[in-house]
Amino acid sequence: MSFLSTTWLMFTTYLGATARSKRMIICMLLVLTVPLAALLPPAHVEAEKAVYMIGLFYLLQVVAPIVGLIASAGVLSDEVENRTITYVFTRPVPRAALLLGRYLCVLVLVSALMAIAAISVSSVAPTRSATPALADGQASRLLLAAILGGASYSLLLAGLSVFFKRAMVIGIFYLVAMEVFLALVPGSAQKMSIQYYLRGIYTNLGAVENQWLRDGPEMLAGTEFSTPTELVVRLMLFLAFLFGVSVWGLRRRQFVLTS
Amino acid sequence: MSVIVQARELGRWYGEVVGLNDLSVDISPGITGLIGPNGAGKSTFMKMLVGELRPSRGTVQVLGHDPFANRELYSQLGFCPQQDALYDHMSGHEFVAFCMRMAGFRKREAQERAEEALRRVDLTDVMHRRCGGYSKGMRQRTRLAQSIAHAPKLLIADEPLTGLDPVARLHTLELFRELAAAGTSILLSSHVLHEVQSLTEAIVLIHRGRLLAQGTVPDIRKLLSRIPRRVILRAREPRRLAEAALALDHVDSLSFTLDGEGLAIETRDLEGLCRWLPAKASELRAGIRSLESSDASLEAVFDYLVD
Amino acid sequence: MKASTHTDVYRPFVGELKSHPRRALVLARAGIRVSFKRKLPALILFSPLAIACIVMCFRVHFMFTLAEQVSGTPNGPEAAMMVTQIQALLGDVVQNIFQFVQQSSWFVLIVMAWYGSGQIAEDQRVGANLLYFSRPLSRLEYLGGKFLTVFWFGFLAMVLPCLLICMVATFASPEWSFLKEEWDAILNSILFGVLWVSTIAIFVLAISSLTSRKTYALVGSAGIVFGTRALSQLLSGLMDDARPSILNLFQNMERVGEVLFDVTLIRGRAISVEASLAVIVLIWVVSLYVVTERIRRMEVVA
Fold it and tell me: Coil, helix or strand for A217?
């Protein structure tokens, strides 16, 4: 079976099942808390600040990693744990297509959820605030960062499931150790975390008057961000590299399944 | 092709546990039974044959191919795994059709093949129900259906009769015969000798990860007949019987039980002993109370062969 | 036609049914033994806590040694002042215990989540509940057994180190003064540790009962605590108001601890101790409801 047709088969077969799965419902509930959080600030809080803080400290830092972690379990981990991977690995399908098809399915769903979260927070917060104006490009940057965040975390954690049996556990440790801890350590070490790129893409808005948007993230990160385009390109390259490594791993991987 | 499976010094370790050790075997076309008790290494061997595992040492060739992640081989291979795993959210028909799509068939043909395969395993009535609601036997038959639907050259079935009721078991054995008649080679594992015996003469015996014997059922039977059988009898006067039994050629050893009333006799001719015993006991007024023979199960055979 | 009764068919039971009084303990012991079979996770999870405990013990010991030096050696006011400053830096025993609790809270949560998430989830996945409830084992005993298993790991991770610190203080203090004068600190440490650990234990069990996979329960437990903490910090920052910190489980625990130990870690905390206690009680009630309801369903299935 050709690479493309296998990818398409995997994508179409798993899209419906994943969308209806319990784990996606949990992800949806989690995403729902984002617009709810946007309803909470009192009217005197500027919409710009509310969207900035909810977007950065909740959507990108908490929701995106957790949604990525939960959703990516469907790419390989569940199948290995359920021991149904045998049926796929003993068929004449390219393993890379299997990974790509399933990852694309998760990517579509996670991106949709992240987009809903980003759009809803950008829409709800101004309705609650006395100063409803958002900074130029703030909503679109948040949207881009959220989608990229969801895509990056889900691919990273799907990649982990290629190499580790308990990928979710490793994923949690990764999130705590790298994304929470490393992203707060001043200096260039934080460039190793996805958070650095997401913060940079979201907050580096150019000529913006609001001090939160201008200085906040860089003060927090303790380092200067590159331009958003450069950050997007770097993140995409990282994702491509990660996918390549995952495919390489999957082609060599043998899953020891106990009966 | 004269040999469908060729293994040379095959070994596989799970950490410190030896799954398979130094196995060299050639398997010819037709039906072959892979026999061994639980934990013998049958599943490990089969997983290596379907390329799910790589050997830790040695080589294996299936239909002339190295099986690990070999797509060319997979289109000629059907595998019915032992583990009770199915896509529970799919119906039986969807599941088998999906497997056929992965095997490279177009949608319509995949569905037709799935329907036909499910009919052959007698699941037509329930094929549109979710697999999650299937009984153990139905699940087993669904696994079998996905392994035969694409008409493979070689079918590898890991304990395919486990969990089936007697009727389904007969039905499945009949199906294997049909497949073999149609030219499909079958390698199936079991720990029950007579189950496989009704299907094939060709047997491969594995125990503790090693090859014990390979041949036909008569060969194995001959091997069985050479095993000394242990008979324990309880009598009023066991010592008199022991004295008389010493004169028999086929008796290898004699021993008394701790209570002094039991006599354990190891014989190479159980039937001869049984013919001799009643008359002798009567003559000696030994007063036999009970007589029991140790089992001739496969496990006992394996133990004997290993020792 | 009247059906024959069981007594007609079976030999009626005339003896006395002996009940095993400590079934929950048996279950807990088995759970602990199984959990400890894998050495590497235990080593990784407990090492940071052991290191933190040892450091705290040394601090406490050093504190009392310094106190003795101040009273014993007349080295002049500068030396005494320096020693007093170092003492102030080291804090008192209670502060050290509290500091340990604060620093180790995430690790304790992870330890308990690691060992606790599979307790009910794995039973559901492999159908072990069928075995358990076919024995004379009540729901309460089952819950008790599971609770004690998780509690034990929390005890090892939090209560035991606190007791060790107290023990070091007792032996290091001149003429057992710590034991004589601050015995209530030992009791409070135990009480606080037990409250902390039991709350996390029941919470983890509730999450575990909702899933059939250990990993999901682990993600759920850590995710809920982490998520509510992040949300509370976010809302506090947005509203310039510390009241949303009531959403943060650890903050509530600390608030109760402050009252228990009579110390102030954060001046002008926005949440009252009553509110914190109410949150903890709410967690208990909700978790108990969830876990008992799920166990009831497991028994019905059996």
Answer: helix
Closest Cβ opposite residue C219 in set A42, A58, A168: A168
Chains contacting A (3+ CB pairs below 8 angstroms): B, C
C63 closest CA partner among C97, C38, C103, C40: C97
Asked whether residue A61 is assigned to any structural domain, the reply reads yes
Residue at A218 is within a domain: no
Give the DSSP letter string of B102-113.
HTT--HHHHHHH
Rounded CA separation B253/C7 (Å)? 52
Q: Report the alpha-carbon distance of residue B290 to residue B104 in Å, rounded.
A: 64
Q: Tell me the C-alpha distance between A63 and A147, whole Å.
A: 12
Phi, psi (rounded to 5 degrees) for A2 = -70, 165
Share of chain B above pLDDT 70, in %: 92
How many domains does the structure of chain A reveal?
1
φ, ψ of residue B263 in degrees (nearest 5): -130, 125
User: How far away is chain C from the Cα of A115, in angstroms, using its nearest Cα?
Assistant: 20
Joined tokens for residue C30: 């088995």
Q: Which residue of B has its CA nearest to A257?
A: B83
Smallest CA–CA distance from C235 into chain A, residue? A41
Residue C248 has φ and ψ, to the nearest 5°, of -90, 115
Sign of CA dihedral A228, A229, A233, A234: negative
Q: Name all domains of chain B by residue range, CATH numbers in brackets.
A: 5-224 (3.40.50.300), 228-306 (3.30.70.100)
* Distance between C240 CA and the closest CA of chain A, angstroms: 9
How far apart CA B171 and CA B186 sit, in angstroms, is: 16
B112 vs chain A: nearest CA distance in angstroms? 18
pLDDT tens-digit readout, B255-307:
888 777 888 888 888 778 888 888 888 888 888 888 887 655 555 565 555 54
Residues of A in contact with B104 (CB under 8 A): 1, 92
Q: What is the pLDDT of residues B78-128, one digit of tens each?
A: 999 988 889 888 899 999 999 999 988 999 999 999 999 999 988 899 889
Q: Which two three-digit tokens encode residue C264?
A: 């102030």
Rounded CA-CA distance C138/C141 in Å is 5
* Minimal C-alpha gap between B201 and chain A (Å): 28
ipTM score: 0.80
Q: What are the pLDDT digits (tens) for A15-56?
A: 888 888 888 998 999 999 999 988 888 888 888 888 888 888
Q: Which residues of A touch C (CB under 8 A)?
A: 23, 30, 33, 37, 40-42, 45, 49-50, 53-54, 57-58, 61-62, 66, 69-70, 73, 77, 81, 166, 168-169, 172, 176
Q: Hunting for tokens 């950065």 — which residue is that?
A: A56
What average pLDDT does the segment C35-58 reach? 85
Looking at residue B15, what is its pLDDT?
Answer: 75
Please state whether at least 3 CB pairs lie below 8 Å between chains C and A: yes
- With respect to residue A121, please indicate whether it lies within any of the assigned structural domains: yes
Q: Which domain holds residue A153?
A: 3-172+230-252
In a domain, A45, yes or no: yes
Q: Which residues of B touch A20 (CB under 8 A)?
A: 89
- Residue B281's Cβ-count burial label (10 Å; 0-12, 13-18, 19+) is buried
Q: C–B contact (≥3 CB pairs within 8 Å)?
A: no
